[in-house]
What we know:
By secondary structure, chain A is an all-beta fold. Chain A is 0% helix and 51% strand.
Amino acid sequence: DIVLTQSPALAVSLGQRATISCKTNQNVDYYGNSYMHWYQQKPGQQPKLLIYLASNLASGIPARFSGRGSGTDFTLTIDPVEADDTATYYCQQSRNLPTFGAGTKLELK
Amino acid sequence: QVTLKESGPGILQPSQTLSLTCSFSGFSLSTSGICVSWIRQPSGKGLEWLATICWEDSKGYNPSLKNRLTISKDTSNNQAFLKITSVDTADTAIYYCARRYSYYGYFDYWGQGVMVTVSS
């Protein structure tokens, strides 16, 4: 299995930048694509796709969200953070059988 | 408009077989590149991929549960199914179905989830 490691929590102030990291124990790049995706999950709701293939914004997602990275190191950035962004964020790889990170809970200071 | 909705028994006893149905609209499981997956989430915990079935009837299973899982589909009625045999309390979770774009492997649409409790 490809293991994805995320920090458990992050606290940021409104209007500031939040950077959430995801590190993998194996390279998830393949033929020019990084098979890493990001989801947002609010309490009581299903996950929502934010970013696919490391840096592509999913449909309807505001440009405050962005993703970057390659190989084994990836980041999701929210800039500026709004109150509605409090949620848990998961990374997921699809280079091999799908696995998810444990999630990073974003809180406001 | 793509929608998915899960249905299941709610509560079942240990050792029974869990049968889940995913009813979807806005896409077809006969379209090239389209798959439906099952993912679960125990209360307060993270996401665990269980199984995927694709348009050409290929299937994939989580190796840690493979012997207990069976995924299937009814293309005509826009449904996908998951069976889990010999359930125990560790299978208590919210079960989601999600559309998966086969070639890149991300889950672009999710159902609202169905809670399944295993209890004696």
